[in-house]
């Protein structure tokens, strides 16, 4: 089965030795990778968001490979993986909240910048930004 061997090798490349790791150990390693991806989100700069995205892409690829290589018919695997998967899901939820906060922060600043440029209406609401300037030439 070359397909299974290739998946085990790629999943084993996470940080495990020569023998194939248990799926629960791989999931715990993926959770640690998501946790590491969360750290740069404390300072939501564009570079830090990109670092987080790259790390989450790695996690998503490894998780897809793991799930594709797992036998779906054995219910004992599902029970044994319930706790590690719940922990991974919770960590992903924390990252999602930070990413949503970062997006809201940047949207808020864009709105503030638009208000600074456009000013306010007579009733005190932010004015809509003017469309970009256009030049017309008649020859």
SSE topology:
Blueprint: H1 2-12, H2 23-38, H3 46-69, H4 75-80, H5 82-118
Count of helical segments?
5
Total strand count, please?
0
How is the main sheet built? none
Overall number of domains:
1
How does the overall form come out from the CA principal axes?
elongated
Strand content: under 5%
From the alpha carbons, calculate the radius of gyration and give it in angstroms.
24 Å
Structural class: mainly alpha
Q: What is the percent of helical residues? A: 55-70%
Spans with pLDDT under 50 lasting ≥5 residues? Answer: 1-12
> Secondary-structure element sequence?
HHHHH
For the residues shown, what is the average pLDDT? 78
Distance N to C terminus? 74 Å
How would you describe this protein?
- It is a single chain.
- The chain is mainly α and 139 residues long.
- The chain has one domain.
- Helix content is 68%, strand content 0%.
- It contains five helices and no strands.
- α2 (23-38) runs parallel beside α5 (82-118).
- It starts with a helix and ends in a 21-residue tail after the last helix.
In short:
With 139 residues, the protein is an all-alpha fold. The protein contains five helices and no strands. The termini are far apart.
């Amino acid at each position: 089965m070359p397909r299974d061997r290739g998946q085990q090798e790629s999943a084993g490349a996470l940080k495990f030795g020569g023998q194939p790791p248990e799926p629960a150990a791989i999931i715990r390693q993926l959770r640690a990778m998501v946790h590491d991806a969360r750290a740069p989100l404390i300072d939501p700069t564009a570079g830090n968001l990109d670092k987080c995205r790259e790390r989450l892409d790695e996690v998503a690829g490894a998780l897809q490979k793991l799930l594709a290589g797992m036998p779906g018919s054995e219910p004992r695997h599902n029970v044994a993986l319930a706790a590690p998967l719940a922990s991974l899901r919770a960590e992903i939820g924390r990252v999602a909240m930070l990413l949503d906060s970062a997006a809201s922060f940047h949207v808020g600043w864009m709105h503030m910048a638009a208000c600074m440029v456009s000013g306010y209406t007579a009733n005190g609401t932010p004015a809509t930004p003017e469309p970009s300037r256009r030049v017309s030439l008649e020859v």
